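re the bet — no i am not wrong, look at it urself. input seq straight from the record:
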Amino acid sequence: MADESGGDPSRISGKARSAAQLADAMSGLRDTFNDIMNSAQKAAVEEECAEGYPKFRDNYAETILELEEHGLQLAKNIHSGGAAIGRNDDTTEEGFNGAWPGLSRPINQSSGEGHSGPGGAELY
């Protein structure tokens, strides 16, 4: 496929599955982050340390949620892109023509009639 433009839906399908697995692993990431922060806060012996965990959690909870959403969107986008390429290939398969129009006669073969070139030389 190196000499062509476009995509290979079968190769994209594997990437979409990998992205979906990543998205599944990231699902609930914010809840996991909150649980970890709460556990760390409870485990902190000194009060000064324990007070820092809620601030840290509040500062980064939205970022963690965005990360989770980006992972889910990535899987959807890769899957949708592969599906669109496949649909496009199916739609255009019958009517596809190469980049260059074909000649009305074979190349380097006589068409049966001579043609004059520069200086009156006969061309075929």
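see?? Residues 9-93 form one domain. told u. also The chain has a mean pLDDT of 77. so pay up
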